[in-house]
Amino acid sequence: MAPKSYMRVENVTKKFGPFTAVNGVDLDVYPGEVHALLGDNGAGKSTLIKILSGVHQPTSGTIYMEEVERSFRSPRDASAAGIGTVYQDLAINQLMSVTRNFFMGRELTSTLGKLRMDEMDQIAHDEMLKIGIDFSDPSQAVGTMSGGQRQTLAIARAIYFGAKVLILDEPTSALGQKQQMEVLKTIKRVRARGDIAIIFITHNEIHSRLIADR
């Protein structure tokens, strides 16, 4: 039996006044696959990301999650449906620790409101280890990590908090070649889990060919 798509996009269009930013997009995304969206700046990739992530609502068209029609009115709606988006800016505070960034806004606390730091440290360590980063000190500042490691942190965070569809917005841009390869290896490890669908947004055709199934 063929696997069911985690996300299906049918004829999605987005207009801003007379300007059409996205026109009639169709997309099926399956677990255990990397689906690349390749295009130059201005091609509508960012707008499509924001539609799928609940930032913008489409002018027309339909989005299905696991065969159920969905309408995202906010990023919170999209996140609750299992969409995790890692933007280029990563939403990371470089002065804060790995653990505090991992749980940013979703910290574990005791009944008295005290942070359960030991538990959070262990979770952050274990989740990053699953996709290839082993760090000895979860209290280290994120600013001391490489760009590739910071990408891995953002990806691990999205997965831990329930992403079934992982949207990666230009994850290799502004990185050196070694760090780019680190990120591509991380994406391959996530794909190998078999339970997460990945949308890989890029303008780099070489990276698209290296990583994408479709």
List keywords for this structure.
214 residues, alpha/beta, Rossmann fold, four-stranded antiparallel sheet, 7 helices
Give the SSE layout.
Elements lengths: L6 E10 L2 E11 L4 E5 L6 H8 L7 E6 L2 E3 L4 H6 L2 E4 L11 H5 L14 H14 L16 H14 L4 E5 L7 H17 L3 E6 L2 H7 L3
Parallel strand pairs: 3-8, 6-7, 7-8
Antiparallel strand pairs: 1-2, 1-4, 4-5
Helix pairs in contact: 4-5, 5-6
Walk me through this protein's architecture.
The protein is α/β, with parallel strands linked by helices. It has a single domain (7-211), classed as 3-Layer(aba) Sandwich (Rossmann fold), CATH 3.40.50.300. 33% of the residues lie in helices and 23% in strands. It has seven helices and eight strands; from the N terminus they run E-E-E-H-E-E-H-E-H-H-H-E-H-E-H. The chain has helices spanning 45-52, 75-80, 98-102, 117-130, 147-160, 177-193, 205-211; strands at residues 7-16, 19-29, 34-38, 60-65, 68-70, 83-86, 165-169, 197-202. The strands form two sheets. A four-stranded antiparallel β-sheet has the order 2-1-4-5, covered by helices on one side. Strands 3-8-7-6 form a four-stranded parallel β-sheet, sandwiched between helices. Helix 4 packs across helix 5 and helix 5 (147-160) packs parallel to helix 6. The protein is globular. The model has no long low-confidence stretch (mean pLDDT 90).
